[in-house]
From TrEMBL:
Organism (species): Streptomyces thermoviolaceus subsp. thermoviolaceus
Ranges of compositional bias, category Pro residues: 175-214
Superkingdom in the source lineage: Bacteria
Entry protein name: Tellurium resistance
InterPro entries assigned to the protein according to its UniProt record, in alphabetical order: Stress/Tellurium_Resist (IPR051324), Tellurite_resistance_TerA (IPR017115), TerD (IPR003325)
Region (Disordered): 169-218
Family: Belongs to the CAPAB/TerDEXZ family.
Residue intervals of the TerD domain: 13-166
Length: 433
């Protein structure tokens, strides 16, 4: 599609992929969606992005990132049939973290019908330069028909500028005032709307939007996120504002190459994206009273949130989907009860090692910024990987990125292998799901 063009789309669930070519020094690109009524959000919950991944209606969700064949894709799911009647438009946007869009090669947005897998719209050749946030396109309803319009309109003020233009309240840490900037250039005129289209998007002035119309008070959204790397492998949860509430640890995985399906088996129903690979998210814990144990699906050791060990495994996911996925929840209201927690993952079935697997770990506290990191490429025959070590340091949990692949000795289970590597000292017996 060309910029400004529009096309009808089916009133169904659409997968929205925002993709780019990967490479060194290429900024991260995060997809987001803004649900609009009369050109503005009804409340901050109408902004769906990495820190707020699910709309209350369930109609829009941020599904996360995957990497394959030299490309990185961030995905949204928009179910047009489930959108509330008052929603007139869904703005599909992207923000760049670590640079401007001029450094992002082969940027595109593609919409697919999830029922058929067919492409219903695609817009590339966007031609961005100094912008750090872009409205790539919008879904809008006209006379009962949903259409997609290719927009390609940019903001030099980043995701915060985009969000505030639509009436979203942003709560970001205060920083010292920067030196005066050069006088801004005149903003380009907005694109003329297609025939019969709704009112065009506001021009990207980067200035705060005028006060919104009266609406129920909602907490402001936070745009900050923390990514752990080899160079910066640790972070304090308390310093990120996460000192209470629940901390959810999510594991998402994606095979970089096709896997061979086995006939039959209890994983036959798993999506083709993940084949029949089954990873299990687990946690070793040591409490301040000296008690130790494990939380895992094996042996139905799911733990508990409101009594020791104050850690709970939500379920045994067999697809790796971000929207559900494997989730561990830690009750931060009982931080003083923890001495250390080691989050790790094992391969239960479907692969002999983590080679060829791309996995992302996200720690999402109720308060404060989420913390995420990706695993390195696996080059050893490993079936267990230590993900993150949480250590109580003076009442604050320090998160340390481990991303450490371990190779069990013959006859030694993955659980016993990680136990020995970190000196937990538990007694292990065979178990099953």
């Amino acid at each position: 599609m060309l910029k400004g063009a529009n096309t009808p789309v089916p009133t169904t669930a659409l997968r929205v992929d925002v993709g780019r070519r990967s490479g060194p020094e290429v900024p991260d690109v995060d997809a987001s969606a803004v649900l609009l009524t009369g050109g503005r959000v009804r409340g901050d919950e109408d902004f769906v992005f990495y820190n707020q991944p699910l709309h209350p209606s369930g109609a829009v969700r941020h599904e996360g990132r995957r990497e394959a064949d030299g490309r990185v894709t961030d995905t949204l799911l928009v179910d047009l049939a489930r959108l509330e009647a008052g929603i007139e438009r869904v703005v599909l946007a992207a923000s760049a973290d670590g640079g401007a869009f001029g450094r992002v090669p082969d940027l595109y947005i593609e919409l697919r019908d999830t029922a058929t897998g067919g492409v219903v719209a695609r817009f590339d050749g966007i031609g961005a330069d100094v912008e750090t946030a872009l409205v790539l396109g919008e879904l809008y309803r006209r006379q009962g028909i949903w259409k997609f319009r290719a927009v390609g309109q940019g903001y030099s003020s980043g995701l915060e500028g985009l969000a505030t233009d639509f009436g979203i309240t942003v709560d970001e840490p205060q920083h010292p005032a920067p030196p005066p900037a050069p006088a801004p250039q005149a903003s380009p005129a907005p694109l003329p709307p297609p025939s019969g289209a709704p009112v065009p998007l506001p021009p990207p002035t980067g200035r705060p939007a005028p006060p919104p119309t009266a609406r129920p008070h909602a907490p402001a959204v936070r745009l900050t996120k923390v990514t752990l790397t080899k160079a910066a492998p640790s972070v304090s949860l308390a310093k990120q504002g996460a000192s209470s509430g629940h901390l959810r640890v999510n594991l998402d995985w994606q095979m970089r190459r096709p896997s061979v399906h086995r006939s039959g088996g209890r994983r036959g129903r798993a999506a083709a994206r993940h084949t029949d690979l089954d990873l299990d998210l687990c946690a070793l814990y040591e409490l301040s009273d000296g008690s130790k144990g494990v939380v895992q699906a094996l042996g139905n050791a799911y733990g508990a949130l409101n009594r020791p060990p104050y850690i709970h495994l939500d379920g045994d996911d067999r697809t790796g989907a971000v929207a559900t996925g494997e989730n561990l929840t830690v009750n931060l209201d009982h931080v003083d009860a923890f001495r250390r927690i080691l989050v790790f993952v094992t391969i239960y079935e479907g692969a002999d090692s983590f080679a060829g697997l791309h996995a992302t770990v996200t720690l999402r506290p109720r308060h404060g910024a989420p913390v995420d990191f990706s695993l390195d490429e696996c080059t050893v025959p490993s079936t267990v990987c230590a993900l993150a070590l949480l250590t109580n340091t003076g009442g604050d949990l320090l998160v340390q990125r481990e991303a450490r692949y371990l190779v069990p000795r013959r006859g030694v289970s993955p659980q016993r292998t990680v136990d020995q590597a970190y000196g937990w000292g538990l007694n292990w017996t065979p178990g099953r799901k």
